[in-house]
Amino acid sequence: MRTALVTGAGGFIGHHMVKYLKANGYRVRAVDLKRPEYEPSDADEFEELDLRNEENCLRATGDVNEVYQLAADMGGIGYITANHADIARNNVLINAHMLESASRNGVERFFFSSSACIYPMYRQHDPDVTPLKEKDAYPAEPEEGYGWEKLYAEKLCEYYDEEGKLRTRVARFHNIYGPLGTYDGGREKAPAAICRKVAVAGDGDEIEIWGDGQQTRSFTYVDDCVEGIHRVMRSDVSEPLNLGSDRLISVDGLVDIVSTIAGKTLVKRFDTSKPQGVRGRNSDNARCREVLGWEPSTTLEDGLTATYRWIEAQVERARSAAPMAEVAS
Ligand SMILES: NC(=O)c1ccc[n+]([C@@H]2O[C@H](COP(=O)([O-])OP(=O)(O)OC[C@H]3O[C@@H](n4cnc5c(N)ncnc54)[C@H](O)[C@@H]3O)[C@@H](O)[C@H]2O)c1
Q1: What are the residues facing 170 on neighbouring strands?
Q2: Given 26, 146, 152, 221, which residue is catalytic?
Q3: Strand (E) or helix (H) holding 32
Q4: How far is the CA of 271 from the centre of ligand 1 (A)?
Q5: In the structure, what pLDDT confidence band is assigned to residue 327 with cuts at 50, 70 and 90?
Q6: pLDDT tens digits, one per residue of 265-280
Q7: Hey, which of 70, 90, 93, 278 would you mutate to test ligand 1's pocket, going by the most ligand atoms within 8 Å of its Cβ?
Q8: CA angle 43, 87, 142 (to 5 degrees)
Q9: 146 is known as an active-site residue
Q10: Is 69 in a helix, a strand, or coil?
């Protein structure tokens, strides 16, 4: 039986990754600072460890064939804009110790979760952006803090692989969304935040949207993400690959889809004082199709329906347990 370690297994993608690997016959060890918030983990063992500490990384990576490194200090645009020092320091420590520990423990394959935030700012000034190819990463000008530490960790993976210390695989995720993801508290991403705001609002109410709504992105459903991770892990490709949908949509358009799913007509109030990140970003999937013979295929409408229904149920549950003001904040 194949054995895998999933780090960040108390978080959104890590929790789904554990489910995917269990469904595919793996024995799974899960590690995180915390357990999953919304349902128990499927993992065979779950250890609460701080992976900024090298001893903990050595313990976590012992006796496993594969490592899926999904632990990171991260959040939505508000969080990553306000916490450059903590994010950069914490994640550099986690990734450096995880790579070295996996190498020393003889792990066969190591997956690292990079991000579209590594792409240069100078290529993302236009909402009608040209999709980003993997080679567009250089010359580098990534997102401050989070983007720089991801790009540096990609390089660390490359060096470990080149020198035969550890076989590494890397994917750059483009805005992953889906059920069981953080939807409130300040670390949530745009799709979850929009679903929450729409779920809380009554028909005809006003909702606040960060930015002018014209900023564009592509959004990737979490089931496609975990399948893609597994395909990247099995592939022969050690250089980073995009893992994302290539359907470009504005945040305004995203709100319209969610409102339609909810069956609500809402008034949008755009707040341009809030952070909105780069103007436009999309994934070029040519390389992914070429080397994996596959690309994400869940439609935004299907993925957002599942996500909205789940968040709506959470909001209803919270509403019946707490005063309205707390749910809406
Ligand atoms: N969700 C996205 O859209 C997206 C996009 C690009 C890249 N990524 C990357 O994918 C990975 C997973 O992201 P996610 O969306 O599931 O985020 P998440 O915040 O839900 O999960 C990350 C998990 O890492 C854990 N963690 C943080 N510091 C830790 C530490 N010191 N020791 C142990 N665990 C620690 C957190 O507790 C959390 O549960 C991360 O590397 C992230 O940077 C995500």
Answers
A1: 112
A2: 146
A3: strand 27-32
A4: 27
A5: low
A6: 999 999 999 988 899 9
A7: 70
A8: 110
A9: yes
A10: strand
